[in-house]
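User: Some background: our group keeps a shared notebook of sequences we're curious about, and every so often someone picks one and asks for a predicted structure to add to the entry. Today it's my turn. The entry only has the sequence so far, pasted here. Could you supply the structure so I can complete it?
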Amino acid sequence: MLFFVQLINGLQLGAIYALVALGYTMVYGIVKLINFAHGDLMMVGAYLSLFLYSSGLPLYFALPLAIVATSLTGVLIERVAYRPLRNASRLSALITAIGISLLLQNAFMILFSSTPRRFPSVSEQLPVFVIGTNRISFMAVLTVLFAVGLMLLLTAFVHGTRMGKAMRAVSEDMRAAQLMGINVNRIISLTFAIGSALAAFAAILYGFSFQQIDPYMGAMPGIKAFIAAVLGGIGILPGAMLGGFLLGIIESLTKAVMPAGYTQLADAVVFLVLILVLLFKPSGLLGQTTREKV
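Assistant: Of course. Here's the predicted structure to add to the notebook entry:
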């Protein structure tokens, strides 16, 4: 039964990684940018949710408002920081992304201090599943269902709507899409808006699950979400979800078998997974290896 409980914990953690990874993979699929500031947008969503709730707004109103505000923050970052570098080298864009990440972390540390804040709890209002001698919180199940549901909605949007088809066209060939009359800037802004909203969803689920947030909370989950996107196949939406769940399960089971005091080595195992994927399946589990002519 211990394995079953750790499996549920891994799925819960993996669902959060998967939501952030979906944003990573969308942005990379459209503009070929590894947005290392994406994890910090998760932190922004968490603090905006807490700030709006603490200001007296009901939780059911504060959370959607925080998601919208985080989405607009992502669009603003793309407009100010990334759009002027769209035709620059990838290294320039990557350095800018790291700079934005550090800017967000330090700005929120100045605004809210580095002291961890307690996130509102809803666990007392939710039922608990009892399986044998083990108790599984409804929040864990809800987190997984939310992640899978959002991935399915996003997939349906990308493949079944006009804007989604425009996204795929821009992903295939930005210049050709522009010649066909597609507003590339609008599509890229929409991509950042959706990815940032997913990061805010992940932040809310993270806060409800772990009850504590701080200005650096998005750094490590952001890196792990990037690893999840690479593991599943970066640029592939179901791959990001699969990679997130697998990474969460691997991390949870590793912590379970590690001796007390050595659970931090689970992070080393996660990075080992990245190395192995890059060595043996660089296109990811669901990606296809393509040949490039030179």
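Suggested note for the entry: Residues 2-280 form a domain with the ABC transporter involved in vitamin B12 uptake, BtuC fold (CATH 1.10.3470). The radius of gyration is 19 Å.
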